[in-house]
Predict the structure.
Amino acid sequence: MIISDAQIKSLLQTYARQDARYSARKAKDEREKKAMVNDNSLVSDTARAFQMAKNLIKEMPDIREERLKGIQNQVMTGTYEISDDEIAEKMIGRSLVDKLV
């Protein structure tokens, strides 16, 4: 059996095309893999930020003692004043939040 130069060139071209397709597929897979890692790190960073905020909120006291004492003093001395508009605004705001949640 004799193999001609044309057959060798044809065979080499076939292998080159397959190698190019394989390399392109491999490069695409690598890009997708990197994108997934970047997405995961983004989610992880966001999750860490939320967790930190959640922990800080948990550490906050339920009652702000200094503010409560100030209001108590104002009520006791008769100097505590709040406008009707502020009361209405808070009531409407709370009603809207309750409906949304």
